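Re: your question about Double-stranded RNA-binding protein 4-like isoform X6

S., sorry for the slow reply, the queue was backed up all week. Below is exactly what I fed in.
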Amino acid sequence: MQHLFKNQLQTYARKRNFTPPVYSCERVGPRHASRFKSKVTVNGQTYESQGYFPTLNKAELAAAKAALMSLLSNGVEEDGFGYKSLLQELAQREGCGLPTYWTDRSGEAHAPTFISKVEIEGEIFTGQGAKTKKQAEMSAAKIAFTALKQRYSSRSPGFLSTSQFQEAPRSSPLSPACQSQEGLQSETPQFSVSNLRAGLTAYLQQNVQPKLPVLNEQAEEYRDSPTNLATSSGIEFMVRGIRVLIHPSGTEMTYPAGSTVLPISDDKWAAVELPPQRSR
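Result:
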């Protein structure tokens, strides 16, 4: 689904007689393990991908997505352009089922009114009345996307916020041609166990409290130890006997059999519950 974002942004610009979107990028790390970050300029406004990606194409897709979501959220588009695609991508990213639409028609044959509804995971969102079925579905998708985006953004405040981590690796300014920094020593942000604790505790309290005791200051001391292993790929630590691995999204990693990607993962960070280690 994400490959559609560049096409949608191109169509968006063409429909408004804007100049075609212009992409620029920066490249960090050695040639054999480069990471990319991209910006796209549309009608004089510049939008940036969040974080670094293993390929230039993925970075440009992320920049195009950021541009579309910003334009739509700001109400620039009134006809619901792109909301069905954005809603489907959001549903897939959050592990929900695909959106299901149905439309009711009323009024005279020469001047009908269409009202669409969309269902996601048993929740129904109703759009506004429209003159065509397509517009009605776009309206329902817009309402659902806006509500779900806000909900998913606020459900685990601060857990994987970039403000809790050190800044990504510094590199040369963006330019039309990607610039390389082969001497860069670190390509990924460094993790802070103390900063992760509060957000992880909130998630555990909300999602697995029946199975897991609540962490608090009087509970078992949580600190760096041999069970909290920080590496260049991420950090692995134990929380009440549960092994949790957190690393930047896009990092090529192989998880042990039985691992579960937690729903708090997003396009910047991935959180994975690892299976218990076997006794030696």
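Helices lie at 4-15, 56-73, 83-93, 133-154, 193-207. Residues 75-79, 156-195, 208-232 have pLDDT under 50 and may be disordered.

Happy to talk it through on Thursday.
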